[in-house]
């Protein structure tokens, strides 16, 4: 049950209501060249998708007025492009998005000129602030919108934060989609677990997840991590090409995307018999996970949450004989964030919220990494903040090593 057109129309109405009416113009992502006639796998700009459901590159959306009157702008596609890649017909685009009208790109200059007579302000999507930090090249789609609207409007506002605030609180349909993604992921873990004793390598174990997901029409929401032994201490290890050695632990950080929404789950398993030290680290992380999930409830401030997590983590590290009085040693054994939002994006924004709110979905992912011992353990679940507490959406999946 994919998300219906009424979902996208409602999202547009909510955005315009939040902005107090006015005009919003957003672009799809462009297709990026990989080499020659090959493009990188296309992924839609998340806000554009959330407002339209359109999965194709090159489209624009114009939303205006209190009720979110919607015009889609289709890209000019050559006959050859249509023949090889297909495209979206006007009817298809309307059926997906419930847009009121579809115009072609060549009609856009006249449309912008007409809109500029009606509106002084336009809302567009500004650059993601994390782009600079990670030294990413931005997809050119949104910059092209800015260039096109600049001559027509005296005020250009960025609605990225408004969209993030809206997307941080999930509607019932979004929660249902995340549940479906989590369920496929949990089933993939259970399916692969049965094969664990029969595989020799990280990639063979990953193949069991691939098989289960593809058999259920789901894809990976992000590059999966299958990290045996010391590889687990490399947080973003995605080579997944080493041998699984008896006695080692293996960290599996894997999530499916279903109907546009991501899951993000981690378990740590033992390959054959594992020694007492590794079992103790695993047990400590599982215990920490339960305690941290128990903290989550609406109204909990992010600051209080982080402080609670630090207390629990420090105690666990001490119990494992790991000195962590200073922040440096603490960060050495637990170097990543405890949580992030989850939704259309695997690292979905929580809208800069001061406190947890019912309808938020976030991960809880404590880990203990001891590079000098070649041990890494992480457990990650997907948690829905409810009216009175929290629901662990992936809690049905065993945490046993
Ligand atoms: Mn995660």
Keywords:
Creatine Amidinohydrolase, Chain A, domain 1; globular; Creatine Amidinohydrolase; 13 helices; alpha+beta; four-stranded mixed beta sheet; 401 residues; three-stranded antiparallel beta sheet
How does this model look, in words?
The strands form seven sheets. Strands 1-4-5-6 form a four-stranded mixed sheet. Strands 9-12-13 form a three-stranded antiparallel sheet. Helices cover 38% and strands 19% of the residues. The chain is α+β, with helices and mostly antiparallel strands. It contains 13 helices and 19 strands. The protein is globular and about 70 Å long. The chain binds manganese (II) ion. Manganese (II) ion (MN) is lined by residues 264, 340, 363, 365, 380.
* CATH architectural grouping of the largest domain: Alpha-Beta Complex
- Tell me the number of strands: 19
Main sheet strand line-up: 1-4-5-6
Q: Compute the number of structural domains.
A: 2
Please count the helical segments. 13
Q: How would you classify the helix and strand content by structural class? A: alpha+beta
Helix content range: 25-40%
Q: Roughly what is the average pLDDT, rounded to an integer?
A: 95
Radius of gyration based on Cα positions: 23 Å
Cofactors and ligands present? manganese (II) ion
Mind telling me the CATH superfamily name of the largest domain? Answer: Creatinase/methionine aminopeptidase superfamily
Q: State which percent range the strand residues make up.
A: 15-25%
Q: At the first level of CATH, what is the class of the largest domain?
A: Alpha Beta
What's the main sheet like? 4 strands, mixed
């Amino acid at each position: 049950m994919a998300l219906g057109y009424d979902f996208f129309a409602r999202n547009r109405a909510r955005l315009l209501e939040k902005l107090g009416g006015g005009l919003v113009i957003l672009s799809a992502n462009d297709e990026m060249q990989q080499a020659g006639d090959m493009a990188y796998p296309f992924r839609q700009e998340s806000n554009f998708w959330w407002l339209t459901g359109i999965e194709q590159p090159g489209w624009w959306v114009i939303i205006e007025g209190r009720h979110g009157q919607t015009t889609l702008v289709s890209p000019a596609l050559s006959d050859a492009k249509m023949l090889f890649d297909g495209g979206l017909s006007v009817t298809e685009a309307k059926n997906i998005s419930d847009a009121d009208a579809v115009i072609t790109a060549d009609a856009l200059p006249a449309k912008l000129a007409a809109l500029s007579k009606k509106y002084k302000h336009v809302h567009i999507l500004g650059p993601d602030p994390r782009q600079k930090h990670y030294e990413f090249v931005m997809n050119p789609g949104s910059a092209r919108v800015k260039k096109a609207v600049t001559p027509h409007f005296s005020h250009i506002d960025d609605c990225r934060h408004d969209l993030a605030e809206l997307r941080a609180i999930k509607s019932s349909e979004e929660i249902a989609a995340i549940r479906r993604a989590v369920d496929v992921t949990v089933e993939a873990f259970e399916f692969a677990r049965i094969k664990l004793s029969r595989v020799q390598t990280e990639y063979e174990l990953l193949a069991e997840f691939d098989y289960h997901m593809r058999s259920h029409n789901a894809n990976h929401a992000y590059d999966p991590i299958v990290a045996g032994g010391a590889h687990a201490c490399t947080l973003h290890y995605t080579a997944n090409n080493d041998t699984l050695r008896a006695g080692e632990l293996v960290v599996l950080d894997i999530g499916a995307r279903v109907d546009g929404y991501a899951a993000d789950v981690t378990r740590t398993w033992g390959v054959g018999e594992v020694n007492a030290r590794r079992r103790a680290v695993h047990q400590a992380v599982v215990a920490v996970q339960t305690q941290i999930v128990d903290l989550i409830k609406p109204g909990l401030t992010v600051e209080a949450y982080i402080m609670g997590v630090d207390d629990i983590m420090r105690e666990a590290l001490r119990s494992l004989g790991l000195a962590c009085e200073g922040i440096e040693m603490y960060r050495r054994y637990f170097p990543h964030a405890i949580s992030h939002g989850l939704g259309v994006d695997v690292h979905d924004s929580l809208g800069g919220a001061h406190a947890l709110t019912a309808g938020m979905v976030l991960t809880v992912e404590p880990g203990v990494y001891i590079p000098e011992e070649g041990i890494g353990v992480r457990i990650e679940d997907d948690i829905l903040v409810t009216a009175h507490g929290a629901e662990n959406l992936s809690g049905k999946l065993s945490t046993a090593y």
